[in-house]
Amino acid sequence: TLPPGVYENATVDLTAAPGLGPLKVTKVKTAPIDGQKPGTSGLRKKTKVFVEGLYLHNFVQATFAALKTAGSDVANETLVIGGDGRYYNDKAIQIIVKIAVANGVRRIWIAKDGIASTPALSAIIRERGPVWQKAFGAFLLTASHNPGGPDEDFGIKYNCENGGPAPEKLTDLIYKNTQTIQAVEMCEAFPDVDISVLGETKVAATDGSAMACVQVVDGIKPHIDLLSTVFDFDAIKKTLLSRPDFTMVFDAMSGVTGPYAKALFVDALGLPESTCVNATPLEDFGGHHADPNLTYAVDLTKKMGVDRTGRAVEAADDVPSFGAASDGDGDRNMILGTKFFVTPSDSLAVLAANSDAIPFFKAQGGLKAVARSMPTSGAVDLVAAKLNLSLFETPTGWKYFGNLMDSKALFKGVDYTPLLCGEESFGTGSDHVREKDGLWAVLAWLAVLTEANKTPGAPLVTVESIVKQHWAIYGRNYYCRYDYEGVDKARATEMMAMMTAATPENTGKTIGSYTIATADVFGYVDPVDGSVSKNQGIRFLMADGSRIVFRLSGTAGSGATVRLYLEKYEPTVFDKHVSEVVGELVDIALQLSKLKEYTGRDEPTVIT
Ligand code: G6P
Ligand code: ZN
């Protein structure tokens, strides 16, 4: 074998060179396949679609073509591959390796067993050092919380060297390439890699003219190591977890976070094994939606004494003090206290108000800015105003936060942007990585609870009391989201077009006890690079600060999902159920959208 590095800069025409053996490139003839436009978070389709013919191959080849146009140094830097462990993860990895090598990639890191959560992959891409050399990007094999299995969903997305999802510039280019693709370049004879064993495989061309190196790496440890620098594990352990009156449960929902949760809660924080439930990653997530919300995380909500509308219900005597869950690929989170559900929007606001409890922010001179997606409630805005934090309102999709985090220009005198971000869709995180991070959110809450409970001997300050105290200071943004899943796409699109056209006439209209101060279509100009994202949802901003927002989901696997977001601010009344508060807004929303007429639906499929 040849010394590594020697051929890394070679520009040999691999197709022409003779005797290449495993590195011989075949141009496999293909044709464009419709519908390969990446959505909010990558390309997601039924698994059946992905396994058929060259569906995956086309997308991966189109990505490499885009990377070449964008000037990525694929020959001299490393490609990372991992996934959420769903059905087809392992096979897809082998296909990607063969295409990557044919496209000139010479070093690949694959997470052991193909298992790596989305935030962990972000951490691995960003890791720099003698072992983890520079990565140019990663393929993440995940459809997030969508069910997995041969009859369910599969997905792929590409993240860039900053560790974050590819920006629209790149995904547009990828999509364009999928529409013109003629051939997939593949090293068909490249051996399958045993991804169950850590280690390095070097594969050389028979004639010695080139070599590729595939490393199977630990997908768990780098993330846990990073989190240990963001939080004070010792303090959490000593102050909070050692209290006999504090108990917790973490539900991995049979997704990717099980092994992370064991490494974190059991090995690093010393909690009993029973803390982690559904902690073995399964190819089909046990047949469930691995989505941490009140509808799907039923094991957890039952244990925590909360029903599917968030109300407290009868439960066993030993309801834990703290409950949390993550989704299939580990980037989402749900936070619960004893018989108490924390909405993601409130979670973000509480973390913003208590950010000094998180050493990562404190060490950087304190949090400077917060960001939320447009449909996320304005609870965090109130914190930002009071604590003098900059506030960014972005379109739905974590990628918009990444650009802010990477900016060195947003804040004078600071060459980074310490940022706390969150979305109503159960995503929370910071600039420690460039994805939302489920375990980060759990640790952030543990850190806040640790700080709140630092007086020895005092009664336990609970999740519920922290949130209620927050409302007492800031008021409460009652908030919920209705999803109408699997509706006809054409009809849903027509409905959005109708509301778009009606924005001028709706502005100023009074319906019932509400006046629409502004009806508009949300658009975003990125403050860092000036890129424009149009058509990001229809807003009805009421004169009293309440909001109705309509969007079409960008992550629906098939058909369309209409999302209706409802928000009402109450400065003094905190003890109502959200459904009592937003009732009239729902009626107005249905009237403005003619939703029933367009979609035929009476009721939402999911309420969160
Ligand atoms: C993914 C993205 C989030 C987004 C969520 C819902 O989790 O990473 O950024 O908020 O999907 O997106 P959707 O377009 O379906 O509302
Ligand atoms: Zn996810």
From TrEMBL:
GO terms of biological process kind: carbohydrate metabolic process; UDP-alpha-D-glucose metabolic process
Keywords: Isomerase, Magnesium, Metal-binding, Nucleotidyltransferase, Phosphoprotein, Transferase
Record field: catalytic activity: alpha-D-glucose 1-phosphate = alpha-D-glucose 6-phosphate
UniProt GO molecular function: magnesium ion binding; phosphoglucomutase activity; UTP:glucose-1-phosphate uridylyltransferase activity
Cofactor: Mg(2+)
Keyword flag Plastid: no
Protein name (record): UTP--glucose-1-phosphate uridylyltransferase
Organism per entry: Chrysophaeum taylorii
Lineage: Eukaryota, Sar, Stramenopiles, Ochrophyta, Pelagophyceae
Full-protein interval shown: 445 to 1052 of 1052
